[in-house]
Specification:
This protein has 11 helices and 16 strands. Strands 1, 2, 3, 4, 5, 14, 15 and 16 form an 8-stranded mixed sheet that branches. Strands 6-7-8-9-10-11-12-13 form an 8-stranded mixed sheet. Strand 2 and strand 3 form a beta hairpin. The longest helix has 27 residues. The protein is globular, with a radius of gyration of 21 Å.
């Protein structure tokens, strides 16, 4: 199939004023100016629309926090144990949730979704597409990351029960303890594979889930709003040599120079919410711009359902209004979001070899009069 007569903004590479996208078996095969378009193919006439890569929400709870069904559809937090790395989003996401259709209609074609932040270690996220019925078929990467949480949420969840962790110290201690156990478990298993006299450790689902994190095969995503929580995350990541990303980073603008010096990466958001709890007291829409000016790699997220996922492009547009460079904002919901979500080999830009996730817009997506004209996920047009 060919998408023709499109103004192509590939995010990576030069803009094409009037061009085509060649799609085969769900992948982009080639793209270029219309003069080079292959002949005799099924065509979709974009009629001058702007073609962009599908938008990516690098942190949300889509399908885990179901829409409108209360406790029946709430799979977000297993609040019976503050340490649950063995939980898998792939077992909890409901791809039939209507918010998937709302995401796709808004051009959000890929998300990193999973457990919430009630637990010090919440479980494994999944990177997935937003159109389809079977999560196994929608999976882009699993595990996408391991969710850790610092600050107010674990403290409040278990403090109300008079159980640990009731303080930030206890939350960090639980994370360290489990990572140390996982390191010991990993070392014992390695010795048993080479030494016939060494006993292999008994299977432990929690520790098994953390071994790929220690091996840097799965990134650690740390929920952290306050500056001190972000620095605790960095301290733990350095201690265990983790590949880490800071999620939310609400007070990042207060320590942008420190984060830059540490080489931290930040997923900002949700940007369009109230200050619903104390650790959001320094929330500002200018946070992404200040982080970007410090040279910090960043993405913008909705944290759906905290902010409905269809407002991801609006969040990026408002960040532009608050000082973020327009190109950086677009990258923050496309290629840079893909990189922080660990899926840039598949999505995030319009390039040959990548998934054919394409959004056709009537204008730039940050324009208030922009309408989504068509969305393709893996080369298949979805309902808009």
């Amino acid at each position: 199939m060919l998408i023709v007569n499109a103004q192509i903004l590939p995010v990576v590479g030069e803009e094409i004023a009037q061009g085509f996208l060649q799609i085969e078996n769900g992948k982009i095969v080639s793209l270029g100016p219309m003069a080079q378009a292959p002949a005799d193919r099924e065509r979709y006439d974009a009629a001058g629309a702007l073609a962009l890569p599908g938008f990516i929400d690098a942190h949300c709870h889509l399908g885990v926090c179901g829409d409108g069904l209360g406790i029946e559809s709430d799979e977000c937090n297993e609040m019976s144990d503050p340490v649950t790395p063995q939980l898998r989003a792939i077992d909890g996401v409901n791809p039939m949730d209507r918010c998937f259709a709302e995401a796709a209609a808004a051009g959000v074609t890929c998300v990193l979704t999973g457990p919430g932040s009630a637990n010090a270690i919440g479980g494994q996220f999944i990177a997935m597409k937003t159109a389809g019925r079977r999560i196994d078929d929608l999976c882009v990467r699993f595990p996408g990351c391991m969710k850790f949480a610092l600050g107010e949420n674990p403290k409040m969840t278990y403090g109300e029960k008079r159980e640990t962790p009731m303080t930030r110290m206890a939350t960090a201690a639980l994370i360290r303890e489990e990572l140390y156990k996982a390191r010991e478990y990993m070392d014992k298993r390695a010795r048993a594979e080479t030494d016939p006299d060494a006993d292999a450790p008994d299977y432990d689902a929690k520790l098994e889930a953390l071994v790929p994190v220690l091996r840097r095969e799965v990134p650690a995503h740390f929920h952290a709003h306050r500056a001190d929580d972000m620095l605790t995350a960095i301290r733990i990541a350095r201690e265990f040599d983790l590949d880490y990303v800071l999620v939310h980073g609400t007070e990042g603008h207060l320590i942008a120079d420190i984060l830059a010096a540490e080489g931290a990466r930040v997923i900002c958001g949700p940007l369009l919410t109230d200050r619903s709890k104390p650790e959001l007291s320094h929330q500002t829409i200018e946070n992404p711009a200040r982080l970007a000016r410090a040279g910090i790699p960043l993405a913008i997220c909705t944290d759906h359902p905290e902010l409905p996922i269809q407002y991801l492009p609006l969040s990026a547009a408002m960040a532009v209004r608050a000082g973020l460079d327009k190109t950086a904002a677009l990258r923050a919901i496309t290629i840079d979001a893909a990189q922080l979500a660990g899926v840039a080999d598949r999505v995030g830009s319009l390039e040959a070899g990548k998934d054919a996730d394409v959004v056709l817009c009537s204008a730039h997506p940050f324009s208030m009069d922009c309408t989504i004209q068509a969305v393709f996920i893996d080369g298949k047009q979805t309902g808009v």
